[in-house]
Specification:
The chain has four helices and four strands, in the order H-H-E-E-E-E-H-H. It has 136 residues and is of the alpha+beta class.
Length: 136
């Protein structure tokens, strides 16, 4: 029984140390690894999926995870804007991503393609040196 407690305690300590290193996702030099970025995406997807269980209004575009962001429900005939996700390290976090909800309550598709249209172009625009200096 005593050895069981020792092994259990060591396992708990090891687990806690691994988790604490995962939560400190950004290194001191402000660079993250591919694995850390994937972990943050998986965590964001899980959070989104919990949020998606909320029932949407009839006739509205359904909220959904698109692989990058968690889109809220859309009002028919309107453009939906959301801030660029904070968990994507290389994104411009001052920009927005956009989607259109058509008048039928469906997300607009890319013409000639059966994929939902989304505009992340503001998220991929990097900040200028002037902006970075002002932020610092």
């Amino acid at each position: 029984m005593g050895s069981y407690l020792v092994y259990h305690s060591l396992g708990l300590i090891l687990c806690c140390s691994v988790l604490s290193s995962v939560y400190a996702l950004v290194d001191a030099d402000d660079v993250i690894t591919k694995e850390e970025q994937i972990f943050m995406l998986v965590r964001a997807k899980s959070k989104c999926e919990r949020h998606l269980k909320v029932k949407a209004h009839d006739g509205f575009c359904l909220p959904e995870w698109d692989g990058i962001g968690c889109w809220p429900e859309g009002v028919p005939g309107k453009v939906v804007a959301m801030p660029c996700p904070e968990y994507i390290y290389d994104f411009n976090h001052k920009g927005h991503a956009y989607r259109r909800c058509d008048v039928n309550g469906s997300w607009e598709l890319v013409p000639g393609n059966n994929r939902t249209w989304a505009n992340y172009s503001e998220c991929t625009k990097f900040l200028t040196n002037e902006t970075r200096e002002t932020e610092v």
